[in-house]
Amino acid sequence: MPILNSEIRSYNIIFTGRKEILIQSLQENNLNQYIFLNDLLMVLYVEANFNENIFNNISQIVWWERAYAMSSLINITNNLSQGVSVRQATDMTNMGNGLYNRLQGNGNVIAIIDSGIDYLNQDFINEDGSSKILYLWDQESNYKSPPEGMLFGSEFTRDEINEAIANNNGDLSKDEIGTGTMAAGIVVSEGKNNINYKGIAPKAELIVVKLRSYISLFKEGRINYQNTDFLVAISYIIEKFKEINRPIILNFTVGTTSGRDISQALLNTFDELYQSGFILVCGAGNQGNTDIHYSGNVSNGESVDIDFQVGDDKNLTIIIDGYKVDKFEVALISPFGEISPTISYAPNFALYTGKFNLENVTYSISYSYPWISTGSMQVSINLENVYSGIWTLRVSGENVINGEFNAYLPNKNLISDNTRFIDSDSSSTITRYGLLREVITVGTYNTKSNSMWIGSSKGPAETNDFILDIVAPGVDIISNYLDNTFNTATGSGVSSSVVCSVIALLIEFIINQTEFYRLSIYSEPIKTYLMLGATQKPIYTYPNTSYGYGILNYPNTLQRISENL
């Protein structure tokens, strides 16, 4: 069952020094629920009424942030009559029995961090009756013990899953939502239930993490995930990467709030993510037409007022990103005209709290400069018991050179349909983890209309620094769903799953061709091959904010690789 957001709070923490000393400091402050992810990063779980000023008492903590909400990048569309099989969408049905179809992903492992998987589905079971799943960690399960070093959930090995399959026992773990199962079907489905819906890399194998789900963070009843649990899942997959010594393609089918500047510090603490054989693929996001982004510019001594509408949400978070060395002052004006104190940078990393009395809305505002993930300013405003109406965010230039800033609301599928910026900007809406240089970031293409999907997140409007890489089919794609059924799904999590599948085929080809394959399967070379092989429409200039370097083209990409081996 999803966890109420009022019951738990979690933090990402960058620390320094010896872990033993930090543990002692944590225990002295009655903080006992933590997981070390590496030598720099840990996550901490506390009660919802935790006093964040306690962090100031622990000298080993050099930076912290409250967990970001994450949401699925896969929208289940229930449109089977108009659906498209994944092989049809990627033009793989007409390739005959040549090289293209002989590659089936052998030797590769695709890691999916999402809503779990229906492991009894026949399409995830090999011909010998064994599961395609090497490991399954259900973060919500109490069935058995969690993985070593973790605090929650149950870990299942392939042998345990095989036994459950033999006994037709579906109690180990359940996917109640279906997005994880659909991502897995796109990748590895055997086509037993319907040969037309066979996956792209049916001989690849899986590592699956079912994320803990939370409910009613912003709008009542909406399910979200937390990036603390997501980072813990990445840590788990890294440990499996060390154990199995095989290529792993990590598929990001859930995403954080959108961003403009690169958000790299947390993922960069994991050295293993940048080793040969570990490929990162991320859906760009589904925020291209959702009014969750505002971009502006302000000079020293000037102010700009940004209106945003709030619907029937319980709570709301607004994030303001600065640019490079710029500093801004921020204030919030309520629908009844109350104004918060003007918040400006102070080096003490203080948390500002207060209340709008007329609306009975409490707020907390944190100001980070330089924010460790970008090196720029970031302000995070959290509103609890938020009031419906038109709010105003006032941004003033305190010490600016460039003057650009961006403001973001949470992902649209977590908030009310009526919550939006009045004057929004659809550019620069890529999910923050998709902005990393090492990540292959994938937008969504609509093969039914031969055009971009309107919801696909876009790169920045004025620079090419963090543009998305390629786009891939992702509209009404048919895949496995719950209880051995099929459904359709749309979104950049669908597109990233398609690209992960194709990468599994490409890596199989590279390994078969050269004994020096490990020099070729870093994320950056694979990304370059995908860009070189992409289809580009002559009417556009590439790269661009919507298409990146073009549309995924598997046979052409394979050709580009063969020319360079």
UniProtKB/TrEMBL annotation:
PROSITE patterns: SUBTILASE (PS51892), SUBTILASE_ASP (PS00136). PANTHER family: CEREVISIN-RELATED, PEPTIDASE S8. Belongs to the peptidase S8 family. This is S8 family peptidase. NCBIfam families: CspC_non_triad. Residues 105-299, 425-550 form the Peptidase S8/S53 domain. Pfam families: Peptidase_S8 (PF00082). Keywords: Hydrolase, Protease, Serine protease. InterPro entries: Pep_S8_CspA-like, Peptidase_S8/S53_dom, Peptidase_S8_Asp-AS, Peptidase_S8_subtilisin-like. It comes from Intestinibacter bartlettii.
